[in-house]
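Subgroup meeting minutes
Present: P.N., E.W., G.H.
Scribe: E.W.

1. P.N. recapped why we're keeping a running log of single-chain structure predictions: easier to compare across weeks, and new members can see raw inputs and outputs side by side.
2. G.H. added today's entry (296 aa).
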Amino acid sequence: MARSRNIKPGFFTNDGLAELPFEVRLLFIGLWTLADREGRLEDRPKRIRMEIFPGDNVDVDESLCMLEKAGFIVRYVVDGARYIEVVNFSKHQNPHPREAGSTIPPRQGMDEPPLHEPHIKPPDQGQGGTSVEPRHDQGMTKDVASRADSLHSDSLHSHSMGAAASQPAAAQTAAPPAPKKPKAPPATGAVWDAYRDAFVRRYGQEPVRNARVNAQLAQLVGRIGAAEAPAVAAFYVGHNGRFYVEKCHGVGYLLADAEKLRTEWARRGQGEPARAAAEPLSEYSDPSSDIFAGAI
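Output recorded in log:
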């Protein structure tokens, strides 16, 4: 059952999400509505597609893999059943207090408490200041009572930790912070540099770069590999095919003809004659082809 969830403005400017295709970002939002209050749902790509993309031909399984590789979800298996957990779900979502608890098992080896504890009222105060314990038959189930005990234990633990922190600094040994690992440059950086340099040489101006271009370059790397993508991008800008020239060598058409252009580039590298400009347009270079519906 789908649920109402929150979306923050920072979602649209997240660098990691900007590298992903449009439909993958939309899928990520849809997963929030399908996940339970702990951020978990069943890993059933076909069913997820019918819930989020009922009228679109989207490869949900591949899109889930991209989200997992980018660190936004975790796909795991418990007792032969496949599940998905949205990372940092509790940091960005506030489920309704009456929303049903999760029936999906957590990832194995994780003993932390649920991401969202139910709201538990403090015990009522009777006459004379004595606390009156609530009865289970008055709306507090055994499960909620056990969770309340757990929260009470956690509170005592936090109090003891705070007392230890107030001791003199000499009695404490603080470990030095671990050095931060440098962030690896994105795989699209080299592709963009090669494309931009060739574009400037041909047209005398910088090409446009935005989130859509970044996503298209990321897909290009996924289709032909990071090692060959820069050379193929530069080869494409120098291609004299009539359709490419008319479209000013946009990145969308490079992505649409990725495998074809890679083959032509490889053949030229092996000394075969340069026949790209004279060869007839492929079905992918036909402007009436459906593949170019979202190229620009």
